[in-house]
């Protein structure tokens, strides 16, 4: 007997890629269970699937930075500055990134690269250990949203957030729509998706001096003049990141989707005073904010 739940959850995360750097991503999760019927004539109660399995997935990878620890581009060590924190140094073809975060902000995947297969195997192993014995099989389908137009991948952190959005390197795969006097502008959509392709978005308020950043000793020896530094303390702990300016956009606001929509709207020059601009910015799948200018 098989039981399925489509669109069980959406995982929003970032991952380290040898070519692209740190990449924001959003995947929809479908679940298929194989097993015999239990005493309630069920493979598993839908309420358990929706609550327990979703919670396991969220705890394992959602709003985390996924590290392919079998790849030599990743170097991890215990923080010498804070308890239950880690230093993570990431060396990629595109840019080098250096971080400190609470351990819970990272997911270590035993693979050479982060992709649907490696994350699927990681999650399947974790989930199966928590399911009752009548469940013999689990099939996860991880899939990106089908977006007909342009989209971008971004990574950020929200220091004021009480939940996991406070983690300094989590991200999203998002589309964006622009309307000029109620007419859609695909040219603007393409421009912003190219501008924010695999971008790290930081708030100017979180900028710190090089002397105040907390990183591994090896990272400090690898910093270049192109690196910029951001840090904050949130409920889960201390967060630090050094990002190369070529993969960075620094905004004059926090990076909530509401304020990013407003930021984008403010960046667009109006050719005519009477022109109206509407920005529909998405944060991952099926949620976002609308700003007008």
UniProtKB/TrEMBL annotation:
Its EC number is 4.1.2.50. It catalyses: 7,8-dihydroneopterin 3'-triphosphate + H2O = 6-carboxy-5,6,7,8-tetrahydropterin + triphosphate + acetaldehyde + 2 H(+). Pathway: Purine metabolism; 7-cyano-7-deazaguanine biosynthesis. Belongs to the PTPS family. QueD subfamily. This is 6-carboxy-5,6,7,8-tetrahydropterin synthase. It comes from Thalassotalea castellviae.
